[in-house]
Amino acid sequence: MSRPQNKAALLQQSEFKFKKLTTLIDQLTPEQQQATFLFEDRDRNVRDVLIHLYEWHQLLIKWINANFYDHRPTPFLPKPYTWKTYGTMNVTFWQQHQTTPLTEAKDLVTKSHAAVMVEIDQFSNEALFTKQFFDWTGTTSLGSYCVSSTASHYDWAIKKIRKHQRTLKNM
Q1: pLDDT tens column, 30-75
Q2: How many domains does the chain have?
Q3: 134: domain CATH number?
Q4: Distance CA 14, CA 36 (A)
Q5: pTM (2 d.p.)
């Protein structure tokens, strides 16, 4: 699938890929879902991947709320993070959730995915995919941020879980 270029494709791909991700996870045994990945430094298990998605959903929702609803100019990444240092932010997210149970991570990401879909659905195609439609999106579009926080991020998660599956088969 190519990167979504309109609202309909964004909503369709996000739902499709989220379902694909959850189905993939459901195909793992409970033990496999809890197992530590043998190939990763930061996201070490299914829970970590789901929490990563959840936290990026939260970034998107908070950013939209601050800028669109509250009219409070706010960057996408919270201070002190920048696009050069967001990796450190991801590590912070990981650290904050080391005691979060997998069942809770599944619930959090399911609810945050639904909340993001509601946010996306309220905007017109033009508002989502016209570059600089909102001054707070900089030189890009709101839709680009939404794609990155949903469909593209789900692709990343699917690849991680598939790699975990392959690793388990080779053991």
Answers
A1: 999 999 999 877 899 999 999 999 999 999 999 999 999 999 999 9
A2: 1
A3: 1.20.120.450
A4: 27
A5: 0.96
